[in-house]
């Protein structure tokens, strides 16, 4: 029997971009940002404008040094038992990130085969049974079942099945087997 497939976003789902942005903003701009103060805001609203956000996201090593979201590694190992797991990242918007993301995945998720890593521009080309992502703009094009991973910028969105962490994601997907 063929396994069902899952596409999993990297930034904000496997990698804690929110925590990293907060650290960078304190270090680079002297601006202290608290997680609870940015719930429901866009990246630009939370992080003082598009220009500042883009300067941080285009910094060398930003994507290479992202912290891993709690339970992500163990959860993907569990999911691989019953699903074909793909990591999908809209990485081409940040050209410096391409190599950094591959190195990051190799370090933290060495059990994910290189053939199951998709770095793209638009996720509208992805055709898997499930897509776990933190951005509604990516879930809008999901050809399978969309699952929204909670992040500060989607806190007010209610269009999709929501999971708040990896334990919840695994529970939802175990029911699908």
In short:
The chain has 177 residues and is an alpha/beta fold. It has helices at 17-29, 43-46, 50-57, 72-79, 97-108, 136-139, 166-176; strands at residues 4-9, 83-89, 117-119, 130-133, 145-149, 161-163.
- Work out the count of structural domains: 2
Fraction in beta strands: 15-25%
CATH architecture of the largest domain: 3-Layer(aba) Sandwich
Order of SSEs: EHHHHEHEEHEEH
Instruction: Count the beta strands.
Output: 6
CATH superfamily of the largest domain: HAD superfamily/HAD-like
- Structural class, judged by helices and strands? alpha/beta
Describe this structure in words.
Belongs to the 5'(3')-deoxyribonucleotidase family. Pfam families: NT5C. This is 5'(3')-deoxyribonucleotidase. It comes from Flavobacterium chungangensis. The protein has 177 residues and is α/β, with parallel strands linked by helices. A six-stranded parallel beta sheet has the order 3-2-1-4-5-6. The protein has helices spanning 17-29, 43-46, 50-57, 72-79, 97-108, 136-139, 166-176, and strands at 4-9, 83-89, 117-119, 130-133, 145-149, 161-163.
Comma- or semicolon-separated keywords:
7 helices, 177 residues, Rossmann fold, alpha/beta
Helix and strand arrangement:
Elements: E1 4-9, H1 17-29, H2 43-46, H3 50-57, H4 72-79, E2 83-89, H5 97-108, E3 117-119, E4 130-133, H6 136-139, E5 145-149, E6 161-163, H7 166-176
Parallel strand pairs: 1-2, 1-4, 2-3, 4-5, 5-6
Helix pairs in contact: 4-7
